Amino acid sequence: MGWGAAVSLLRAGFRVTGCDVRPDVLQRLEDAGGTPCGTASEAAKDAAAVFIYVVNSAQAEEVLLGQGGALETADPGTVFMLCSTMAPSATVSLADRLEAAGMLVIDAPVSGGHLKALSGEITVMASGSDAAFAKAQTALDAVSAKVFRLGDKPGMGSQVKMINQLLAGVHIAATAEAMTLAAKTGIDLQTLYDVLRVSAGSSWMFENRGEHIIAGDYAPRSAVDIFVKDLGIVTAEAARNGATTPLASIALDLFKEASAAGLGREDDAAVAIILAKKSGVSLPGMEGQA
After folding, report:
1. How far is Cα of residue 182 from the mean position of the Cα atoms in its chain?
2. What is the pTM of this model?
């Protein structure tokens, strides 16, 4: 998603500096017209707006506040857009520290997948001050099809993204279960997919991840371990607020099981492999698996 944002910003004419742990990504950024940097502090120097795309709150804290972090060089008034999926409580804590350092903050988790990111058509669930939005709006417009302004303080964006991830994780698990049951009962998976994608039982996740299962293609677009994290956030924040989330809890157990089986870095649709093995059925891509 971060690569898609960088490409979209370059396409819109922005000067883009970027930092990534992978040398091949930095080379691709340079080839695309951006400026690769070795540290977050180098990337943030003289930047008006900074997009943070990392896996979790610990990584966000490290690239912002750790050694070589962005706050070492960021000018006061720089807008930081926190685009990672984090627990709302973690987002608020991080935003408070950035604002105390004189920065502007938009809680800006995103949705849409890597293809939407590449085309500059992601959805942004955003909350922050009017001043932060005024300074970052053109950059946000470059990477997104829709920016939902959900409040004037960080936290609400992460709360809404958390609910999105609840649905997304449950829908992936339901897709895996449906496709596995279909295979077990002898239904052709492509035929099933063609019927259901235009029927009431469909969802965006079914349409997207169903294709992965039919193709036996578990190259990671999003990964199993991402939903171990995200559904973990859902269940923990639900418990904190006294809410009950039984479907999220069951889906989380399935993602945890897939991760423990060595599928953590595979596409999240790989939870279907766990269900298929338990059901004694072979899905595409499972040939030769123990």
Report:
1. 29
2. 0.92
